[in-house]
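pinging the channel bc i need a second pair of eyes. not urgent but kinda urgent?? the chain im working w is below, pasted from the shared doc
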Amino acid sequence: MSRLLKLQHIRKQFDEKIVLEDISLEIGTGEIVSLLGPSGSGKTTLLGIILGLTDMDQGKILFHDTDISRVPMNKRGFNIVFQDYALFPNLNAYDNIVYGLRNKKGMISKEEVQETIDFLELGPHVKKRISELSGGQKQRVALARTLVTKPKILLLDEPLSALDGVIKESIKQRIQSIAREFKLTTIIVTHDPEEALTLSDKILIINQGKIAQYGTPQDIIHQPADAFVEQFIIRQLRIKRQNIYQLFGEAHA
């Protein structure tokens, strides 16, 4: 797997508070990487820095080995699905999906738009108003709107936090299918270890602005880097033991 994105010694401070300190990692093409940590750990700030929404104080971001640290957000070619979906309530689902293409003629054909709609099984819902859609349908519309702009990297901010049960599992499967089908590198912010462990190829665990561990779900389950990782992860595993242990075994049972 080729390296797509490299972060080097990222540092960010707000007033007197250091939010991120010496964050370095590499992400490969088509990987799903979760940024995981408790509230206030710095994961959302890191997502904003990758997107170009937030400036960093120190460090570099390399995309295909090219330094994009000072490239503005609208020139990076990355795109984000926000936690609240940010859909336009006055437009139907289809118009929301194609909204970002208004000033980008020729980026994608009508056939490709339809393929995306079909891939996400949104055909029966494209003429509905946003208020008529379920949470899972809104999430799929938001994903479709992002995918039709052909992002180089897909960023997701707490994509499952407003969903429950079967709908949550369905969206997890959609995200994994998107990454595989489009070879689309996907970076996800989540506070939920179960989501990260069952959704991701790799997980970056952040604690108080620093990397606590970066590795595969198996690495983190079976070889937690320190007491924080063990307590943060294993506590959740015990709460949701059935789902996780079926996938990773009875580690730390």
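so The longest strand covers residues 3-14. and The mean pLDDT is 90. — does that match what u expected or am i reading it wrong
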